[in-house]
Amino acid sequence: MISFIKQLLDWIYRKDCYFCKKPSPLGIMCEKCFSEIELNSNETIKIISNICVYSSSLYIDNLKKLIRGIKYHNQKELAVPLADILYTYWQELGHSKDQYEIVPMPLHPKREKNRGYNHVLLYAREFSKLTGYPINSEIVKRIKDTKPQYNLSKVKRIENLKGAFEVDPSKYNNKKLLIFDDICTTGTTIKELISTFKKNGINDLYVLVAANPEGNS
């Protein structure tokens, strides 16, 4: 009887992998699909205004589906495996012994309300659990409801992001800040955020993104 009940519970609460659709003892992402994501090398993908930008992997295959699942399809549980990927990569960089505050890329309040959450904040929280780094989501706000960047030219991207952020220096705790974002393509958004921090005298910055497009550097 006990064995039957256990089998019944396993069937009721069984989860399939979001990626391969097969039963997954680990939950929303199975070990095989997780292992298929290859980490980037321990080099910066960009240096923006003298600030190092690191990316954990390429925006392809399972990682692309993972990010889009969190961002557009309300698959909040995927924040856990994404944080694991970021944490593994971060350890390999050799920065994990230092102390940082995590600054998730802010969304404009209107966009966050429409989506129901800030997807970057979701996996920043999971990353915080793994590293012990506190999250500082009060230091910067997005005050301009910008247009989506992907259809804009380089000039239009810069104009679109101009004045998008507002930093509150009183929320700075004199720690290294680790800016979190999902994807770095041209780096225009990150550049504007870095510039806003620097205008407020905050320069001890690092950037860690989940992915960069293939061939983008």
Q: Short summary of the structure?
A:
This protein has 217 residues and is an alpha/beta fold. The chain contains eight helices and seven strands.
Description:
By secondary structure, the protein is of the alpha/beta class. The protein folds into two domains: about 1-35, no CATH class; about 35-210, Rossmann fold. Helices cover about 40% and strands about 20% of the residues. It is built from eight helices and seven strands. Strands 1-2-7-6-3 form a five-stranded mixed sheet. A two-stranded antiparallel ribbon has the order 4-5. Helix 4 packs across helix 6. The longest helix has 15 residues, at about 80-95. The termini are far apart.
**Distance between the first and last residues' Cα:** 59 Å
CATH topology of the largest domain: Rossmann fold
> What is the name of the CATH architecture of the largest domain?
3-Layer(aba) Sandwich
* Spans where pLDDT lies below 50 across 5 or more residues: 4-12
Structural class: alpha/beta
β-strand percent reads: 15-25%
**Number of alpha- plus pi-helical segments:** 8
Q: Helix and strand string, N-terminal first?
A: HHEEHHEHHEHEEHE
Helix content: 25-40%
As a whole number of angstroms, the C-alpha radius of gyration is 19 Å
Number of strands: 7
Main pleated-sheet profile: 5 strands, mixed
CATH hierarchy, class of the largest domain? Alpha Beta
Q: Which strand order does the major sheet show?
A: 1-2-7-6-3
Q: What spatial form do the alpha-carbon principal axes imply?
A: globular
Mean pLDDT: 89
